[in-house]
C-alpha cells in the first residue's frame, strides 16, 4: 500500500478552508435561527447534567488537581482551566441522554461543539455574538459530515461515534472561534484526528460513556490552541491510506465515502438536520416510543392486558438499543429500548424524573421489559441510513387484539423540529432545577439574541451559579 503524500489532502484542506473562511453574513437566516435553538438546548442539558453523580465525581477530581479559574462550569460556582472546563461541560451535556443528535452522521453535536467555543470565549475575551454563532455553525457542519462519510458501519464496529467523530466538530468550532488561518486549521484537524477515541461498550452500564463527548470537546480545544501556537498535526488526516482517520476507522476503503466530507459544504447546511430529544434516552429508541404512545392514545390499554410487544427495526436499532434489559446502571437503562418502553407504559413519560435508582431494579418494570422483543427487519436496513430509526411496532393484547404502528420520524427530528417555545420549555424544565428562574430567563434572552452581544462572555457568566 502506498502512503499518500501530504499534498494529497484536498478534503482536509477543504474543511479547513471552510472553517477559517466562514462568515456570519454567509450563513442563511434559517440556519442562524436554528443554531441558537440548538445551543440553548445544549446549555439546558449541560446545566441539568451538573446534578448527576458522574459529573460531580469528574468535577471534584479535576478541581483537586487543577487550580486554574479560567472558565466556569455550567450550573456551578466552580471554575477550571479552559480544556478541563470543556471536558466537564461536554460531559454534562451528554449527562442524561437528552442532548441533540444528527441521525445521519450518528453524532451528538452540542456536547462536543458548544463547550470548547464558550471556553475559547472566556479564554480570549472579545468574541462577539456573531462570531460565536459562526463558530457554532462551523462545528455543527463538520462533525456530521465526517459521520456521513464513515457511515453506520463505524458505530456497528463498536466505536462510540459521538466521541470518535466528535473531535472534528469540537476542533472546527474551536478553530473558528480562535480565527485560525486555513493552514493552522489543517494542523488543528490533524491533531484532533489522532486523539479520536471512544468505545460503544461504554453504553452497557458505565459512567465513562458520559465522558466520551467531554473528552472530544477537550481534545478539539487542545488541538486548536496547539495549532495556533505552531504545533503541527497530520495534514492529510482524512486522506492518508495508512493510519488516516477514514482507513483506520473503517474495515475497508469501499466502506467510507470521503467525498461526503466536503459535499455541499457552505451550501447545504447539516445544521438543519440536527434533531432534538424529548425523551431522556438513546435517540434510536424515540420512534419506538412514539409508536407506543400513538397506539395507546388510539386504543387505551393497561399493562395487565398486555401479552407482548414486538419492535421491527434496522440492524443498528437491534444492536444499539434492542438488547435484553439487565440492571447494570443508569446508562444501560437509558440505552435500552425494552426498559424505556416499559417505563413509558408504567409512567406515561420517559424524561429525567422517570430514571431513578429504584426504577432500574423495579421487578414490575423488568418483567414488562421482558415482554418487549426487538427484531431485525432487513427491509428497513436496506432503505439506508436515512431510515435507520424507522420501526414497525406491534402490540399484542391478551384478548387477541393486535395494534400496529409504523414511525419513520420521531418528534424533534428536522422534519418535525420543535418550535422556539418548545425548546425554551425544555430548557426551562431542565435548568430551573439548578438555577433560579430569573437567571434561566436571562440565559434564554441572551442566547436568542446572541448576535447583539459584543462579548460572548456574557453567556458564560450567566451559566454560573452565584454563591
Task: Explain the overall architecture.
The structure is a single chain. The protein is an alpha+beta fold and 467 residues long. It folds into 2 domains: 10-273, 2-methylcitrate dehydratase PrpD (Orthogonal Bundle); 283-410, 60s Ribosomal Protein L30, Chain: A (2-Layer Sandwich). Helix content is 50%, strand content 6%. The chain is built from 22 helices and 6 strands. The protein has helices at 10-21, 29-49, 53-65, 82-93, 110-123, 129-150, 152-156, 161-164, 166-177, 182-193, 208-228, 245-248, 286-298, 315-321, 330-334, 337-347, 357-360, 363-369, 378-382, 420-431, 437-448, 457-462, and strands at residues 71-72, 79-80, 306-313, 372-376, 391-397, 402-407. Strands 4-3-5-6 form a 4-stranded mixed sheet. Helix 9 (166-177) runs parallel beside helix 11, helix 13 runs parallel beside helix 16 (337-347) and helix 16 crosses helix 18 (363-369). The longest helix has 22 residues, at 129-150. The protein starts with 9 loop residues before the first helix and ends in a 5-residue tail after the last helix. 55% of the residues are buried.
Number of helices: 22
Q: List the domain count as a whole number.
A: 2
The CATH top-level class label of the largest domain: Mainly Alpha
Count of DSSP E strands? 6
- Separation of termini? 60 Å
Q: What's the average pLDDT?
A: 94
The CATH topology of the largest domain? 2-methylcitrate dehydratase PrpD
The 3D shape can be described as globular
Lateral strand order in the biggest sheet: 4-3-5-6
The residue fraction in helices comes out at 40-55%
SSE string: HHHEEHHHHHHHHHHEHHHHHEHEEHHH
Strand content: 5-15%
The radius of gyration over CA amounts to 21 Å
